[in-house]
Design goal:
single chain, mainly alpha, globular, disordered N terminus, transmembrane
């Protein structure tokens, strides 16, 4: 029992525990909302979430990712205070931009116009809680992140006990719970960060490192979602619904991968700058082991695709089991690319990161008509797979050409 307690206190066990809580709660929340909301409302929720992920990418590029690299070189109270301050400024700017939607003469976004307050609360709270989690993970405060993610579990009784649930109420509940879950992180920053208006050097660093990452995040969002965005036009509502359902399900894997990156990226950067070769090999081994475990899980999804899609969406989706198989192949490619992806980030090859996503997006624009017209859902997922392959090949060629690597 004592040995078990020691294992559970180790950093990787805490990271796994937190990931289990975080990714599990996100997956179950999506599943719960799919059951509680009508089809139209769930589709709108997926759209709001897609917009939220777009803003998360901007946050990561301008604030989180530069901080994750800089913290490996040493962290004091001033950078913590700076990222906290700039996060609030950025949320305020994004909230103003969202409010501007109200004045656009586009009837297709009627829902967004009429429900802007709850949408702004939902997105702002999501962004802030996500920001706090990633910064706290970067500075090894894993226990505090576990506490925050455990508080978020309150969302389930609040939503589960609603007899007649509307999307507006769902967004408000999730937003308020995210604010409550953020409180431990806010208290930590207020007690341990140094707040100042003299942040010129830090601002220049984040702008220098973030400008390519910002461009890459825009390209990453479009290259990842372009086929999904146009699939509805080419394939119809049923095929689009199946693709979104499967993508939502695999979103749990995305969350795991994001947390792996949030934890391993600062560690890899620190060991690289300290030139600790054996420790780097150990880190790569642990990362590879984690990818293999995820690969085994995805293999189970691949094998049991038909009963799984029926469990997720009901009998009406039973003919779409092949979509899970297709998306499983996509995620095998993504898992294989992760050590290379971390190398590009640690070595601060941000321009290459951006160019990789540019190549991916250009391919999407040039090929979507052919792939969707003649391949339908097979073509849509094939396009996503080819996008990943093109990026990996470009990054590997670049690293080999420059003879640089984090892992050797």
């Amino acid at each position: 029992m004592k040995k078990l307690a020691e294992i559970l206190r180790k950093p990787y066990s805490l990271v796994f525990t937190d990931q289990l809580i975080f990714s599990g709660s996100n997956f179950l929340l999506t599943f719960l909302l799919a059951r509680k909301l009508n089809i139209t409302d769930f589709g709108l929720f997926s759209t709001v979430l897609l917009v939220t992920y777009f803003f998360v990418g901007i946050f990561n590029a301008l604030i989180v990712q530069p901080f994750q690299i800089s913290v490996a070189k040493g962290c004091n109270k001033k950078p913590l205070g700076f990222v906290f301050q700039i996060s609030l400024v950025l949320i305020f700017i994004l909230a103003l931009l969202m409010y501007g939607v109200k004045f656009l003469p586009i009837s297709a976004i009627y829902f967004f116009k009429t429900n802007l307050p709850v949408i702004i609360i939902f997105i702002s709270a999501y962004l802030f809680q996500d920001f706090l989690r990633k910064i706290l993970l970067a500075i090894d405060l894993i226990k505090l992140v576990v506490v925050m993610d455990s508080i978020f579990l309150l969302v389930f009784p609040f939503i589960g006990y609603q007899e007649s649930l509307k999307l507006e109420k769902s967004l408000l509940i999730i937003g308020v719970v995210n604010i409550i879950a953020s409180l431990p992180g806010i208290f930590f920053f207020l007690r341990n960060a140094e707040f100042s208006l003299q942040n010129k050097e830090l601002l220049q660093y984040h702008f220098k490192e973030g400008k390519w990452l910002f461009s890459a995040s825009i390209m990453q969002w479009f290259s990842s979602n372009f086929f999904t965005l146009v699939a509805g036009i080419y394939l119809g509502i049923n095929a689009l619904g199946a693709l979104r359902l499967v993508q939502s399900f695999f979103g749990a894997i995305n969350v795991i991968l994001q947390t792996v990156e949030n934890y391993y990226l600062p560690k890899a950067a620190q060991l690289y700058h300290q030139n600790k070769k054996q420790e780097k090999k150990t880190l790569l081994f642990n990362l590879s082991k984690g990818m293999m475990i995820l690969g085994a899980l995805i293999t189970v999804f691949f094998i049991f695709s038909e009963p799984l899609i029926t469990l997720l969406g009901g009998e009406k989706y039973k003919d779409y089991g092949f979509v899970i198989k297709l998306v499983s192949v996509l995620y095998f490619v993504i898992l294989y690319s992760y050590p290379t992806r971390i190398s590009i980030r640690v070595l601060e090859q941000n321009k290459a990161f951006f160019i990789g996503y540019c190549i991916s997006f250009i391919f999407s624009v040039l090929s979507f008509h052919f792939l969707l017209k003649y391949g339908a859902l097979y073509g849509a997922v094939a396009g996503l797979v080819i996008n990943q392959v093109l990026m990996i090949v470009y990054w590997k060629i670049l690293l080999n050409k420059k003879k640089i690597s984090v892992w050797v």
